[in-house]
Design brief:
Elements lengths: L2 H16 L7 E7 L3 E4 L5 E4 L2 E8 L6 E7 L5 E7 L11 E5 L1 H4 L4 E12 L3 E16 L7 E30 L6 E19 L3 E2 L7
Antiparallel strand pairs: 1-4, 1-11, 2-3, 4-5, 5-6, 7-8, 8-10, 9-10, 10-11, 10-12
């Protein structure tokens, strides 16, 4: 196995144990099957009619709640908070969880599941913009004492080789009538985080001097 392949496998393992499973935002759809009332973050009960809503869930690791953001049929943006126990940790993949209405401070119980997949893309080659810097000597008149070193800069390009580490997270949440199995609404969404990993970065060359021009 080549050194680059071994390095990618090590990196994949490193990210898999270091990155939090739930770090939004998750973008997707909320399907509401019957009229429901949720309490928004201003503690106002809001009626949500049956339908499909484009929805985003902000779920940041370490917070004691996540926010569900949607636009109602009148175009008004609404944010609803769902509280979660701070001791709840996402340690497995997939990770399933179940919370009561008392836990989340909403009039429904909640069940959900988080799934994670990770990948590393093929290597890419190309050029990226950079800033080329160099030092010159400036003199005032003919006296050596009047000289000084100053920096100059100009746009440049450098050749690069890189790939992306990608983490896809899939979130399913169901709102359930308290102490029953009757689902009144369901959210399905996903989130993508990716990081560029350089395997080579060349020197920055001023655009006027670069060979590709």
């Amino acid at each position: 196995m080549k050194k680059k392949q071994i390095f990618k496998l090590i990196l994949l393992f490193f990210f898999s144990i270091m990155l939090p499973a739930c770090s939004g935002p998750f973008s997707g759809q909320l399907k509401v099957f019957e009229p429901i009332k949720l309490t928004d973050k201003e503690h106002i009960a809001t009626l949500i009619k049956p339908g499909v809503y484009e929805t985003r869930i902000n779920w940041k690791s370490g917070r004691s709640f996540f926010e569900l953001l949607l636009e109602d049929y009148n175009g008004r943006k609404k944010a609803f908070r769902f509280y979660i126990p701070q001791e709840m940790e996402f340690t497995n993949d997939p990770f399933s969880f179940s919370l009561s209405a008392v836990d989340i401070k909403q009039p429904f119980d909640l069940t959900g599941e988080v799934k994670i997949s990770q990948s590393i893309t093929d290597t890419h080659n190309g050029y990226e913009a950079c800033t080329s810097q160099w030092m010159i000597t400036e003199c005032a008149g003919n006296e050596p004492k009047g000289c000084r070193k100053v920096w100059r800069s100009a746009p440049g390009l450098r050749s690069v080789e890189f790939y992306y580490f990608q983490q896809f997270r899939y979130l399913n949440i169901q709102l359930v009538k308290q102490k029953t199995a009757h689902v009144v609404a369901e959210f399905n969404g996903e989130a993508l985080n990716q990081w560029k990993v350089y395997t080579y970065r060349g020197d920055c060359i001023r655009v006027a001097e670069h060979k590709i021009f």
